[in-house]
Amino acid sequence: MPAAYDVVGIGNAIVDVIAAADEAFLAAEGLVKGAMTLIDAERAARLYDRMGPARESSGGSAGNTMAGLAALGGTGAYIGKVRDDLLGRVFRHDITAAGVHFATPPATDGPDTARCLVLVTADGQRTMATYLGACVELGPEDVDAALVGAARITYLEGYLFDPPRAKQAFRTAAAAAHAAGRQVALSLSDPFCVERHRESFRELVEREIDILFANEAEICSLYRTASFAEAAEAVRGRVAIAALTRSAEGSVIVAGGETHRVAARPVPRVVDTTGAGDLYAAGFLYGLTRGRPLPVCGALGSLCAAEIIGHVGARPEASLRDLAAVAGLA
């Protein structure tokens, strides 16, 4: 049956709050630079009060990917949990305005809508403190099997693996996708997330995942090695495609017996790395759902990532569709 959507993303529905910060601020707040730290509601309120001027928008890793896919001209849907509060309405309006279908019913009680406090240092590195809030309520009952079956690819956000019931939601979604003859993709999201769930992730990858996205630190953590080359070989054959990003060194795509090396797209200056991996996935999935060769998929990912790291925020400021056309990748 023809697919109604290119990709359906499942992840933490989070409102991003992005502000500049120096390393002294990170140290004073006990935050590990470059990592994502889960915080409670009280700490979220305190940290928000101490942050500088900020930009607020709908976000979350899979949400950013779906918005990037839509910006390229792809069709996408999203499954994630928000509360029926102000931030929940902001999230729903923003992601819908970006061109992404979002129909998951909001929670009517329980924790407030999640927010991610993103602190960007002068070197462009982002450090995240995340209050998951209503995200922890997402469970298998929120997975619309018909929606999943209507998408060529179901894209799972690794961050969502922290709440226990989300693991059930992932497996429910993967089963629905495969029952419909579709593919399942997973982003490992963060090396600390991998460390928390290494064995569960490895089981999920080997049994349920067709397409894996990971950066160098994440894939090395998954297979307990300091060698990227060893990690890339370890994942070979466990998934149909592994797209492994290496920052300025570009990306490596492992598929069966093939290995494709894709150069990073140069940028005048790295301003903010928030969302770089999310937008790489957006470009890659856009190319893949259009039957493009894997090196072209990687090049589209690099193009989208380069646009996003050139400014503050995880949503594109330039037209990704126009950039792809100029680069001959449309």
Chain-wise SSE layout:
Layout: E1 5-10, E2 14-20, H1 23-28, E3 36-38, H2 41-50, E4 54-59, H3 61-72, E5 76-79, H4 86-97, E6 100-102, E7 114-120, E8 126-131, H5 145-149, E9 151-157, H6 164-179, E10 183-187, H7 191-196, H8 198-208, E11 211-215, H9 216-222, H10 228-235, E12 241-245, E13 251-255, E14 258-262, H11 276-288, H12 294-309, H13 320-326
Parallel strand pairs: 1-5, 1-9, 2-7, 3-8, 5-6, 9-10, 10-11, 11-12
Antiparallel strand pairs: 2-4, 7-8, 12-13, 13-14
Helix pairs in contact: 3-11, 9-10, 11-12
What does the model show?
By secondary structure, the protein is α/β, with parallel strands linked by helices. The chain has a single domain (about 5-10, about 60-105, about 135-325), classed as Ribokinase (UDP-N-acetylmuramoyl-L-alanine:D-glutamate ligase), CATH 3.40.1190. Helices cover about 40% and strands about 20% of the residues. The protein has 13 helices and 14 strands. The chain has helices spanning about 25-30, 40-50, 60-70, 85-95, 145-150, 165-180, 190-195, 200-210, 215-220, 230-235, 275-290, 295-310, 320-325, and strands spanning about 5-10, 15-20, 35-40, 55-60, 75-80, 100, 115-120, 125-130, 150-155, 185, 210-215, 240-245, 250-255, 260. The strands form two sheets. It has a nine-stranded mixed sheet, with helices on both faces. A five-stranded mixed sheet has the order 3-8-7-2-4. A hairpin with a 5-residue loop joins strand 12 (about 240-245) and strand 13 (about 250-255). Helix 3 (about 60-70) packs across helix 11 (about 275-290) and helix 9 packs across helix 10 (about 230-235). The model has no long low-confidence stretch (mean pLDDT about 95).
